[in-house]
Amino acid sequence: MPREQQFDLAKRAEFAANLCEAAGQEALRFFEDRENLTVEAKGAQDWVSEADQTVELFIRKALGDAYPEDGIVGEEHDTKESESGFTWVIDPIDGTTNFVNGIPNWTVVLAGVAAGKTEIGIIHDPVIGETFSAVRDQGAHLNGVPMHVDSGKPLEDGTISVGFCNRIKPEHVLPVLEGVIRKGAMYHRNASGALSLAYVAAGRLLGFVEAHMNAWDCLAGQLLIAEAGGVIEDQDADEMIRHGGRVIAATPDVFPTLKDIAIAAWEPDTTR
To answer: Which end of the chain is more exposed for a tag (fewer CB within 10 A), N or C?
Structure first.
């Protein structure tokens, strides 16, 4: 049986998009009342708020009610193992540092994975009111309108997003920035990797690189880019869920050069 029939991906994607939009409204209520928000540090420049925890529980309940046999992996709560072969991967608020500081660059992220492949990717920006969505082999959309990467533009005419976190040595980040600048490109970082990936898919950025990301931050965005005509590295989604990994994604014109820049900076060891 084709996977579309087995899991009814179109129906699941519609459900997921609606759920992310509803979850975004939940998150907005916290965002608009930040003076009363409880925030804890998980590590250096790594925060979690009651909004993250509450919004993830909101999403988990809706998924559990609609698809009780599906697995659930989230950033803030324990994993629920899959009985159906389908797993949802949640980042309730990607860009928590922005969120707690009142910067309106954060998203609700939901990916659907089966047999090591990301089949559904949703990234919702509730502040702007944009929903980026993709289903494998069915294209990518922004608020229901097809979207495409900005093909045909050389690196020196565009902008690259460079992500980094406290798990990565500075000496593996700075050379990426230098390499991008030496090629004549601009660089960008908005502290939400998922939103940056969505912007590549929408043709706003030419590419994105980060030496290590967790699955909930990147799986949805990688699918968006691939379905919008971009290039991503071939990775096993289940392995990304277990361990995370590097992310290199770009337009077809830019990807080879961007990969060369990143690999030269990252190898042989990128972690602390």
So the answer is: N
Kindly tell me the burial class for residue 34, based on how many C-beta atoms sit within 10 Å of its own C-beta (0-12, 13-18, 19 or more). middle
CA dist., res. 97 & res. 105, Å (int): 9
Which residue matches tokens 């949802």? 88
Residues 133, 141: contact at Cβ < 8 Å?
Answer: yes
CA distance linking residue 150 with residue 229, whole number of Å: 9
188 contacts 161 by C-beta, under 8 angstroms: yes
At 31-62, the pLDDT tens digits run: 999 888 777 665 444 556 788 889 999 999 99
The full 3-state SS of 189-219, as one line of letters, equals CCCCHHHHHHHHHCCCCCEEEEEEECHHHHH
DSSP 80: B
Residue 184 backbone dihedrals phi, psi, to 5 degrees: 90, 5
Does the pTM exceed 0.90?
yes
Peptide bond into 268 cis (omega under 30): yes
pLDDT, one tens digit per residue, over 126-135 is 999 999 999 9
8 Å CB contact between 132 and 224:
yes
- Exposed/middle/buried for 264, CB within 10 Å: 0-12, 13-18, 19+? exposed
> Could you tell me whether strands 207-213 and 159-162 are parallel, antiparallel, or unpaired per DSSP bridges?
parallel
